[in-house]
Structures are given as structure tokens and as C-alpha cells.
């Protein structure tokens, strides 16, 4: 039988829009001769719905949408993700489920057994796990229908398993000869390769074909890359969906032949496409059409602007230069040149008068005290005020421009450069900022070379350089990666890189002291295995002994 994978981009809570998309893809697949189409995990309501599932109206709309989809997709069987009522004694109101729709009705329901509670996942908070799972017959096969994490506990692949049961193993042992997996598996660098290898191990070890359809799109901090796969029992990939785009993929369940669609290759290109998709969907799904970016002439704001233009189009991006008393003419020129190269609107608003007025107001209180970071931060906060004023007036979302290295050690100003509705590059280390900027310019040279070449500086005091306060970024990023993403100790980090132990401890103390800032930051787009945000939950009021 010809089977289709409907790799779609739903919006959380948009039942009518999601249902219409499922129906549209189903009818396209039916007209192309497919007898079955699979859609991703929770595709009817969007993923992750989080505490929305506690609202009875949400669950009701979800079920009504499924019934509507069933009625409008006659002639093709449809598998889609939805929430279903849970047994009262579980203490949860719903389960994360998959429904087989056939002949205008719900013919079969399978619920998720393994509920992840690590990193960005907190499914045990919202869902009850399935007690058991069953096979369903389809076109001469016994189908083992699983939902995302249900396929992530193979003892042949993982050295350390998180669950005591393997749903795939149990379904195959019960006679399943074809594994179907509907997923909402978020992207991070290396995740596509891990996912492919893990599914390949299942296909080869259990000697069954595996078909996985994955969600695509951005929802809050998460980006889903799609990259759906069909893998034969010998481990060969026989069908493949695009990365970071909606797609409709076909394969034959008997001959195990199918369509191979090109995916984005390379770490830098993948990271960039994830940031573009995450920005586009965050802005649009939140109801905005335009964005505003403060352009300093530096590389962080330049990369953010390039991402925004690729995500939304130049007509929807406004760049704002805000020179202060210590801004160089070169920085102003670089910001203006960037805006010209990108084809975006550019406004120049000086903060010098605001800065002097604030100092004049504070002088009686600050009398006799030396100048310090306070005066520097007044400049940053003046810029934040202007950006938010423009946001209010024009109804445009402010994109903040801080990178992961700065956010990690608190080299950023609350209510200043941290203002905004989305922190586009907050999971991109400074060293990767340079790589992604080079990638941007390899496609079309838009970031001025002077912006790339100049030493990084906040330009909040004369001749200021980031290196005055921070270690070199290659050193800082190595420490942050080991500490934040790998949870290594100061001694382990210093030993593995031959770094000075006191330097490593100083960086770690900066990370921990900045927790209060990060918990007030705008949401960012996750592209690493461990991003700052709700996938990394640390207390603010805590003492750490190094």
C-alpha cells in the first residue's frame, strides 16, 4: 500500500487551522493514491499544549476536531495525534494519544506509555501514561503504533535506559511487523543524526520497517525539524522528509521504496535554518507581523537582523541605531550599511540627551560616589526604553540580540539590552555567532566586514572591549559548554582543557550569579542540547561551594 507522511506545522490551540491542514494533506495524499497517512504527535491540538489540557473546553474542541477530520477524509485512513480522557484514578485528566480514523469514524486509539520529564519535557505533569498498548491490522500487516518517546528506550541502543519497559519491544513480541511512530521531537544540533541512528537500530534489531513522522515548526522556545523517515529492516532509509519545512512524503509498505527529499546538511546551515524557522513561527503565531531590532554595528545584532529578514521579509524588519556618548562613527556606519544591505527600514535615535538627563536627575543621590557600571547601564536602559516605545507605537515585536555566552555569565543589562519578546540568538555561543555570520555572507554578503573584524565591545565607556571583563570567547565558550551542557565540575573542565582552575571557577560563579537575570529574560530559540530556559531549572536563591 502507498502510505503518506504528513509533516505539518500546527499551532497550539488552533483547532480549526490544524484540522484544516490535516484534511488538506489527507485529501492530497488520497488523490495521489495513498491508503493511509500519518500525522505527528498531538497534531490536532499542537505540541506542547502544556497546562491547556487541564481546560475541559480544550479537550472537547480536540475531540470535536477529530470527528470533523474523520468525516472529511473519507477514502483514506488517517492517523493523527490528539488528547483523550484519562481514567479518573490516575489523577490526570488526559492522555497523549493517537487515533486511527477510517470510514468517517475513530476506529482505533493508542495512548502514549513513556512520558518524558527531562530537559524541556514535563509530560508526566499533564498526561497519564497508557497501561498497555495493542496492535491494529492494516493492509496485511500488524501495525505497532507508537508515540515519540515510546520508541526511545531500546536496550540495544541506549547504555542507560530511562524506563523499565520498551513499548516497541513489547508490540513486536506480540506480533507487530511494522512500527509506526508519530513524533514531536524537538531539534538541537546533533538530534537528527541521533534520531536516525536510534530508529535504524530498532529496524535492524527487530527486523521490521519503521516509519516516523515528525512535527515541523516553532512553538515558543522549541523548534521541530521534521526530517521524517522510513527505514527498512536492513537499516536502509527508503523515504525521507525535508528539514525545517512542511512536506508530504510517500512510500510503498510492500516494496519499501519511497521518496527521498533533500535535508539541510551541515551544522551551521542547520542551526541557521532552525533560528529562521523559530523566529518566523514565534512572531507569527504570537500575532505579530513586524519586528524591531536595535542595531549597534556589532555582530550579534547584525546576525539577528539577517535571521529576521530571512524569517519575515525585509519589509517587516525595522532596524534602529541608538548611538550614545561612546559610540564610534564606525559602528553607526556599520549599522546603516547593514540595514541598506538587508533592505530594511533604518532609524537613527541618539540616547545622549536621555543619558545626560538621567545622570542629572541622579546626581544629587550619587554625589561623591565614583562612576561604575551604573552609568554604563543607564545607556543600555535608555536604548531599551526607546525600543519598547517603538514597539508599543508600531505594534512590532522587539527582538533582543544577546548571545548565549553573554547570557551565561550575565554580561547583559536587565531592562536594557535584554528587553524584547524573543531572544533570537540566546542559545548561540559567541564563537558560533561568527560562524553563522560567515555562513550568512557566503549566501549573500550582507554583514559588513568591519562588523566581523572589529573586537567585540558594548561601547558603554571609552575604548571598552568585551575582553576587559571576560576571558577570550573561545575559552569562555568551552567552559560554558562543559559546565552548562555537560554538567562537569570546575576541576574536570580545567583538567580537560588545561585551563587555569581559578579562571574556570570565576566563570562558574558568574554563571550562577546571573541566574536571576536569565529567569527574567525573553524566551530564546533552543538549538543546543541544553539551553537556558525552562529546560534548565535552577534556583535563584542558592549557595554553591566550588
Write structural notes for this entry:
The structure is a single chain. The protein has 546 residues and is of the alpha/beta class. It has 2 domains: 2-258, Nitrilase/N-carbamoyl-D-aminoacid amidohydrolase; 270-470, HUPs (Rossmann fold). Helix content is 38%, strand content 18%. It has 17 helices and 20 strands. The strands form 4 sheets. It has a 7-stranded mixed β-sheet. Strands 6-7-8-9-12-13 form a 6-stranded mixed β-sheet, covered by helices on one side. The protein has a 5-stranded parallel β-sheet with strand order 18-17-16-19-20, sandwiched between helices. Strand 3 (77-85) and strand 4 form a beta hairpin. The protein is elongated, with a radius of gyration of 25 Å. The mean pLDDT is 95.
A few lines on this structure:
The protein is of the alpha/beta class and 546 residues long. 38% of the residues lie in helices and 18% in strands.
